[in-house]
Amino acid sequence: MAKYAMVLNYKNCINCKACEVACKEENGILLGANSHRIWVGVNEMQGQYPTLSIASSMFYPSQCQQCDNAPCQEVCPTNATYYDKNRVVQVDTNKCILCSYCMVACPYDARYVDNRTQTVDKCNFCSDTRLERGLKTTACQATCPTKVRIFGDIEDPTSEISEILRTKEYFMLKASIGTEPKLFYLK
User: Fold this and answer.
1) Which among 154, 171, 172, 180 has a CA at the least distance from the CA of 71?
2) What is the count of structural domains for the chain?
3) What is the DSSP string of the chain?
4) CATH code: domain of residue 83
C-alpha cells in the first residue's frame, strides 16, 4: 500500500491558476466555479507605505491536508468520509447527506458543497481519476509551470517526495492540533 502525500514549494507559486484549472478539468467542475478542491490564496500586504511587507510569500496554494487524524472523518454520521487503502481521505457521494458536519470540523476550510452532486467534496489527490488510471501525479502537479507541487508515496524511501522530506526543512499547517496533515510546506 502507498501512503500518498504532497510537498508544496509555495514560494515558487506565481498565482497563474494552472493548478486550479487542471483540477477543475480533471474533476468536471465548471471553470467559473468559486468553490473547488484546490485554491491559491493571496497574502495581504502588512504595514504602511513605504515600508510594506508580506508574510513569507505572496501566494500560498492549498487544498485538503489529507490528515492522518482527520476531524472530518471522525464527525461524519454516515461514514461518507473515509480512508481508502492508501490513507487518502475520500467522500462517498452515495452516503453523504449534506449535514455539513465535516465542513465545520475541518480546521483547514478545505470542504465545499458540490452543487452538481449536492454533496460535500474535497481534494482526493486525483485517486479516482489519475491514480486509478495508473498515473503517478495529480492534475495540479502535472500542470504547474513552476513545480510548486511534488506528489508521491512517502512510504517509498526512493521516491522524490521521501528524498525531499529527508533533506529539506518543512512545516505543516496547524501541526499543533494533532491532525497529522500530509501536505508539507517547504521553508
Assistant:
1) 180
2) 1
3) ---EEEEE-GGG-----HHHHHHHHHHT--TT-S--SEEEEEPPPBS-TTS-B-SS-SEEEEE----TT-HHHHH-TTS-EEE-TTS-EEE-TTT-----HHHHH-TT---EEETTTTEEE---TTTTTTTTTT-SS-HHHHH-TT--EEEEETT-TTSHHHHHHHHS-EE-TTGGGS---SEEEE-
4) 3.30.70.20
96: its cell numbers:
453523504
Position 56 scores a pLDDT of 47
Q: Considering only CA atoms, which of 136, 134, 5 is closest in space to residue 68?
A: 5
User: Averaged in consecutive runs of 10 residues, what is the pLDDT profile of the chain (187 residues)?
Assistant: 92 91 88 76 63 61 94 97 94 96 96 90 94 93 95 95 97 94 95
- Identify the domain containing residue 113 by its residue range: 4-186
The pTM for the full model equals: 0.87
Residue 37 CA to residue 59 CA, distance in Å, equals 17
